[in-house]
Design a protein that fits this description.
A: MetI-like fold, 2 domains, globular, B: Rossmann fold, OB fold (Dihydrolipoamide Acetyltransferase, E2P)
């Protein structure tokens, strides 16, 4: 009991296990890599100068920035109006729309990339249709070019832009717009002078996250782009896999890392760590997992049912626009949702094809590809490996992440800002850099090519997700409840188990779910650390997409598309239950 | 240990709290209201002192209120007593024993938290059972205690409700019941009525007073609401900037405030520090005279002079504003540089003065108090 008491007084202890894993797998090797890139102990910038001295490298670097920037801008241009329309829709419509955006967000990125191969390929949906109608005689070059890369990247990143925006926009008090109009502002003036500035936090965090994640993109450009569309991560990955020069790999990783860190620190994080800015990074990071916030906010709305809010909304909507703008709005929403979901539908149809190769539309229907999935040990074995790894990752990261989040919530805010930033690094910097660092971390530990190694490599990212989600839940948790329990004679551990745990359980379950999804979909880091001896499902799919183009992968992708629906049901059940039992904490969150 | 040691005179079983070995006598003593003593307690947050050298003794069964604006250190003092914060310097003693080494869960205090801190995932009944359960009481023993307590706070039929299904006043009563059910020797109230509307607040003041009379706990209440402090307490401590400004009974505190701060914090005060009112630094030696608005009489300039002229101070001024507030009228009267407040109980046949008119003010010299700055 003395121990618990002491732990209670030194919350840092709770963060240590998570930090230890993070340091061993990721932190120490990052430092090693940095010294390696500087040719320690002689210290020179030779690796950097030779990297930057080659025209091809500069070109890849600029191309990476260009592709990321353009994809981000497209996401913003499409995402902002979509988010606006979602946040101003009626409650019921909003719920449905958010679910429709979240489903692709939770779907395997590989499956979604593959769907564009099916649509844009030479024998794919579009070319087949055009040829069948006699509009063209030979396939258009729709795939393996820059445009296809943009389509694929925007498709994958769009939910990540929309969700933070919706979350911020739902927080904007619409009576402010009504107030602006009552003072004589035209609707467009009210929008630009009041609404738009208030939505800027969402724009900033959405843009930043999308851009930084794009910097590390690897799968989509490799699957949909041509030879000339390589991004820096493709370049790094190929160097790692082909008996590389460690110095040059580390130099190029650090160039990418430097760009990401500069972007994050200039536009998002204030690295000075002053008290004032400390909570900001946390908030920014959390916007990424706005699913939780959006869903929670939604639950709040259901339970609050505030008349005044509706009144102002009615006033606002009544003046908002006529039939024409409503039509344009609905059309935009329909197109965006179609863009997000249609590819998944195509893949599901494809998975029932009776043809031997990728061809659309299928000439007949059969279950042969499902048969080949469940009949081939290479496939179901890989799936089983992924499930095992995923469960281990979820268990490990949920325990470590929950402890860390609980500890962080009790630490002085200036230190907390820094620690949170460190813990969230694995999901905020380009994934290829995490992969290279974990590779060296696991080399140190002798875990390359083992399931344990993969579990560790996935766990560092999964911990970040758990910390974000559990922290968000803890932020709504009233600490006085724990004090009340103690004042009634409950020891700290009892107080946690009887009061805190039941109230933050939805967050913990959500965190575990995201940890599992993170591991189950991970391909970039896995491909670097698996050492060809362990095959996870995403690795097997990636191999299949790159080499064989055999529609078994469509069957797998279809099955993976069903998973998010399962996740949604799980989240709904946990959060719905949370709503009925802990209405108070949820309500306080809005106050 | 005999069972009888755990029964009060009325047969109410007494909950036992697991604690370090003490003698049987002291255990019994814990059941009578405790005495609380703060001894030179200082609490620093970094370089900032929240509480500075606080020394204070609360007698057995006393109801003491710590009153002060936010940032005065009152909540910090309460949190240290509850064991959620530890003093940087000094010591806190409960019934003569230091509690420095006793964690919050070993202090055996009932606390009513600001906004109540009812467990939202437990029913009212489970909330009330919680402190008994933590003291290792069996379910069969708990049930009658809970029943009785629910009845005492008029919530007999609410046992199976969730806290979110209760009104503010009902939640408040559950919180009080939960704090008292394990029969702790000390009751702490943190802004107990802050979340309630005015009518409910008066009703709950009565409830708290009743419970205090009935259970006789040594009670410390923290609030920034002067009315709450005046009506509930045996004694009031006014805190300011982490220090005690004044400690006295409610009546003495209101009638004889020691400082300008106390005079202004409890009620309204007319500070008579302008030359027109006969004030200069020499004759008051660093103190300022003050008179309460209800001690000032207002009359027409030409009305007959007050009988006790020799003992009164008189001033003439112009009415700036008259506010009618039901049982009383509030005048704001400009006398030279100063604006004085006069509060007059409404009575029949009374002359009413409109804004802009000249009036005469007078008050007894005996009603003037000298305040420290």
């Amino acid at each position: 009991m003395q121990i618990f008491q002491r732990i209670g007084r030194a919350p840092l202890t709770l963060v240590l296990p998570a930090l230890a894993v993070l340091l061993v797998v990721f932190g120490v090797p990052t430092v090693q890599l940095f010294f390696e890139s500087l040719n320690a102990p002689s210290f020179s910038i030779q690796n950097y100068s030779s990297f930057l001295g080659q025209y091809a490298n500069i070109r890849v670097l600029l191309q990476t920035l260009e592709i990321s920037a353009i994809a981000t801008v497209i996401c913003l241009l499409v995402g902002y109006p979509t988010a606006y329309l979602i946040s101003t829709a009626s409650k019921r419509a909003r719920m449905v729309l958010i679910v429709l955006v979240v489903i692709p967000y939770l779907t395997s990125g590989l499956a979604r990339t593959y769907s564009w191969v099916v649509i844009l390929g030479d024998n794919g949906l579009i070319n087949s249709a055009l040829m069948n109608w006699g509009l063209i005689s030979s396939p258009l070059p729709l795939i393996y070019n820059r445009a296809a890369v943009y389509v694929g990247m925007v498709h994958i990143m769009l939910p990540m832009m929309i969700l933070p925006l919706v979350s911020v926009m739902l927080g904007i008090n619409t009576s402010l717009i009504a107030a602006a109009k009552s003072m004589g502002a035209k609707p467009s003036t009210a929008f630009w002078r009041v609404y738009f500035p208030l939505s800027m936090p969402g724009v900033r965090s959405g843009t930043l996250l999308v851009f930084v994640i794009c910097l590390g993109f690897y799968i989509t450009p490799a699957a949909l782009g041509g030879l000339g569309d390589a991004m820096l991560s493709t370049f790094i990955a190929s160097q790692v896999s082909t008996g590389f020069n460690m110095g040059s790999v580390s130099a190029s990783s650090f160039v990418l890392l430097a760009i990401a860190v500069v972007m994050l620190s200039v536009f998002g994080l204030n690295l000075s760590g002053t008290q004032d800015s400390a909570p900001k990074p946390r908030k920014g990071f959390m916007d990424r997992f706005s699913l939780l916030r959006v869903v929670k906010q939604y639950l709040n709305e259901l339970s609050v049912a505030s008349r005044s809010k509706q009144w102002s909304k009615a006033l606002y909507q009544a003046q908002g626009g006529g039939g024409w703008s409503r039509f344009v709005g609905s059309l935009t929403l329909t197109l965006v949702i179609f863009f997000l979901l249609f590819p998944e539908v195509v893949v599901i149809i494809m998975s029932f094809s009776s043809d031997a190769t990728l061809q659309f539309p299928p000439s007949g229907f059969s279950l042969q590809w499902y048969g080949s999935f469940f009949g081939d040990e290479a496939w179901y074995g890989a799936a089983w490996t992924s499930i095992k790894v995923g469960l281990a990752v979820a268990a490990l990261s949920t325990v470590l992440g929950t402890l860390a989040a609980y500890g962080l919530s009790r630490i002085a805010s200036d230190i907390r800002g820094w620690l949170t930033m460190v813990i969230l690094a694995p999901i905020t910097i380009p994934v290829i850099v995490v992969g290279v660092a974990s590779y060296f971390g696991l080399v140190n530990l002798g875990f390359i090519g083992t399931e344990t190694g993969i579990v560790l490599a996935h766990t560092i990212g999964a911990i970040s997700y758990v910390v974000v989600i559990v922290s968000a839940t803890l932020a709504n948790f009233d600490r006085r409840l724990e004090q009340a329990a103690k004042s009634m004679g409950a020891r700290p551990f009892t107080a946690f188990m009887r009061v805190t745990f039941p109230l933050i359980r939805p967050g913990i379950i959500g965190g575990a779910l995201f940890a599992f999804i993170h591991s189950f979909d991970e391909v970039v880091v896995t491909s670097l650390v698996s050492g060809y001896s362990v095959r996870t499902l995403p690795l097997k799919m990636w191999e299949n997409i790159r080499n064989e183009i055999d529609p078994t992968v469509a069957a797998v992708a279809s099955l993976l598309t069903l998973l998010p629906i399962l996740w949604m049901i799980a989240l709904y059940v946990t959060w719905w239950r949370a709503r009925s039992s802990s209405q108070n904490t949820v309500l306080e969150a809005t106050a | 240990m005999s069972q009888s040691a755990h029964l009060r005179s009325d047969g109410h079983p007494v909950a036992k709290l697991p604690r370090q070995a003490t003698t049987e006598d002291q255990k019994l003593e814990d059941r009578v209201p405790a005495q609380i003593e703060f001894r030179d307690v200082t609490k620093m947050y970094g370089p900032v002192a929240a509480v500075t050298e606080l020394s204070l003794t609360v007698g057995r069964g006393e109801f003491l209120t710590i009153l002060g604006p936010s940032g005065s250190g009152k909540t910090t003092a309460l949190m240290m007593l509850a064991g959620f914060e530890s003093p940087t310097k000094g010591d806190i003693l409960i019934s003569g024993k230091s509690v420095a080494a006793v964690p919050s869960y070993g202090r055996d205090q009932g606390i009513v938290f600001q906004s109540y801190a009812l467990f939202p995932h437990l029913t009212v009944r489970r909330n009330l059972e919680f402190p008994l359960e933590m003291r290792g009481m069996k379910a069969t023993e708990r049930a009658p205690l809970v029943e009785r307590m629910l009845k005492r706070v008029h919530l007999d039929s609410f046992g199976e409700r969730m806290p979110s299904q209760l009104s503010g006043g009902q939640q408040q009563r559950v919180a009080l019941a939960r704090a008292l059910i394990a029969d702790p020797p000390i009751l702490l109230l943190d802004e107990p009525l802050g979340a309630l509307d005015r009518n409910l607040r008066e009703q709950m003041q009565g409830e708290i007073k009743g419970l205090h009379r009935e259970f006789g706990k040594t009670t410390i209440c923290v609030t920034h609401d002067q009315e709450e402090a005046l009506t509930l307490s045996d004694r009031i401590v006014v805190m300011r900037g982490g220090k005690i400004e004044q400690l006295d009974t409610p009546e003495a505190l209101y009638d004889r405030p020691a400082t300008r701060f106390v005079a202004n914090f409890l009620g309204e005060a007319n500070v008579l520090d302008s030359p027109e009112l006969g004030f200069n630094d020499q004759n008051f030696r660093g103190k300022v005279p003050m008179v309460r608005p209800e001690r000032v009489r207002i009359s027409a300039v030409n009305s007959p002079a007050p009988a006790e002229l020799g003992q009164s101070q008189v001033a003439t001024g112009i009415v700036e504003e008259m506010i009618y507030a039901g049982p009383l009228r509030k005048y704001q009267v400009r006398v030279g540089e100063k604006s004085l407040v006069v509060r007059q109980h409404v009575a029949s046949g009374q002359e009413v003065f409109a804004a802009g008119g000249s009036v005469r003010l007078d008050w007894l010299r005996a009603d003037v108090r000298l305040l420290n700055e």
